[in-house]
Write a structure and sequence with these properties.
five-stranded antiparallel beta sheet, six-stranded antiparallel beta sheet, 3 domains, 11 strands, alpha+beta, about 30% helix
């Protein structure tokens, strides 16, 4: 009798271990699927007339992470806002912006039925593919950029700086840049200053404008 009880107890324990193992395997599979979904830019969602800012942000975050990676996304990019464009259309169009320094990188998405997809031609502006090229998300400190400008020309001792994105092939296509401008001077009805365009990743001077400005 006792032997039968111990056999039954052993069977129960074995079943518990098997069920527990299957549960852990399923959890691991779920985690892996969740991680894989991060780089899936086409995502199902329940149909509704429009998405909230938070809902559309979930999809744009995935696209950002698929381009720059989780670590660099968390380090450099700050969600700014999500706006619904042309709300009267059947296919809703959204523009989502993320701040990196003082520059707004943007993603255009639209809902086609129950699918959220990138707008035509993978409409992403100001988001480099750091997954393919890690150097695109390695930045020289702002103080060092200013030092490079001042070494190039003493006119930049008093300077303003603006962070931006260049799609110009001659300035290093699809890369972040710093524009460093000297203190403006007046010449008749014109305000004149000098400016440098510097690669934000390498510190290389891409362009020097000895005289630029505007006239009244």
């Amino acid at each position: 009798m006792k032997k039968t009880i111990w056999i039954a107890v052993g069977i129960i324990i074995a079943l518990i271990l098997i069920i527990g193992g299957l549960f852990l395997f399923k959890q691991r599979e779920t985690i892996l699927n969740t991680n894989n979904n991060i780089i899936n830019t086409n995502a199902e969602l329940p149909f509704k007339d429009f998405l909230s800012s938070e809902e559309i942000r979930q999809y744009s975050d995935r696209i950002m992470i698929s381009h720059v990676g989780q670590e660099d996304f968390m380090k450099y990019f700050k969600f700014q806002k999500a706006e619904l464009i042309e709300p009267s259309n059947k296919d809703k169009r959204y523009v989502i912006s993320y701040l990196i320094n003082d520059y707004s990188a943007v993603i255009w998405l639209y809902t086609n039925g129950s699918i959220v997809v990138l707008d035509s031609f993978e409409h992403i502006v100001g988001v480099p593919n750091c997954i393919q090229d890690e150097s695109k998300c390695v930045f020289i400190e702002q103080a060092k950029i200013l030092e490079i400008a001042q070494k190039n020309n003493t006119s930049f001792k008093e300077a303003s700086m603006r962070f931006g994105w260049s799609g110009d092939y001659n300035l290093g296509n699809e890369t972040y840049i710093w524009e460093v401008s000297s203190k403006p001077t007046n010449s008749g009805d014109c305000t004149i200053y000098q400016s440098l365009i510097i690669n934000a990743n390498t510190g290389k001077i891409l362009k020097y404008y000895p005289e630029t400005g505007s006239c009244a």
